[in-house]
Design a protein that fits this description.
This protein is an alpha+beta fold. It has four helices and five strands. A five-stranded antiparallel beta sheet has the order 1-2-3-5-4, covered by helices on one side. The radius of gyration is 17 Å and the shape is globular. It starts with 7 loop residues before the first helix and ends with a helix. The structure holds adenosine monophosphate. Adenosine monophosphate binds near residues 8, 17, 19, 33 and 34.
């Protein structure tokens, strides 16, 4: 099992520090976020230490993400939220503070005041084609 002795989530997985466990199996752990954005804010993590979502092998990611629907249903039942945001921050620039892949499930209710600055822009002429070419190269 890949662990990082400096990682707070690896310490939780190793039982060195406590967590409010909601679900656990051989691949993943779900627990309450200690600094909730809303009542019942959940974290879902793989047992193996990976810093970034982009580093996780597909089978391992599948074993973790298959838990999102049942956790989402449990979240709705337990919190009476009308929905939730699923969020994964990859990298410090995106707000990642704990360097162990994790998914946030953030309960939402109408008018709760949570949200993003969703400053949608517009591509200048030609830029969309440049981006498309860059992605196609990167994916090939
Ligand atoms: P991120 O900014 O995406 O890296 O989010 C890390 C999250 O981990 C934050 O929402 C923290 O509140 C949460 N967190 C950090 N340490 C703990 C802990 N010991 N138990 C539960 N949640 C934690």
């Amino acid at each position: 099992m890949s662990i990082d002795s400096d990682c707070v989530f690896c310490k939780i997985l190793a039982g060195q520090i406590p967590c409010a466990e909601v679900y656990s199996d051989e691949h993943a752990l779900a627990f309450l976020d200690i600094g909730p954005l809303a009542d019942g804010h959940l974290l879902l993590i793989p047992r193996r230490h990976h810093r970034h979502l982009s580093d996780v092998p597909p089978e391992e990611l599948a074993a973790v993400t298959r838990l999102i629907p049942p956790l989402g249903r449990a979240l709705r039942r337990a919190t009476q939220a009308a929905g939730f945001n699923l969020l994964c921050n990859e990298g410090a620039a995106a707000g990642q503070e704990v360097p162990h892949v994790h998914f946030h499930l953030i309960p939402r209710t109408a008018g709760d005041g949570l949200g993003y600055r969703w400053n949608a822009g517009k591509y200048p002429p030609g830029r969309m084609d440049e981006m498309l070419a860059a992605y196609r190269t990167a994916m090939s």
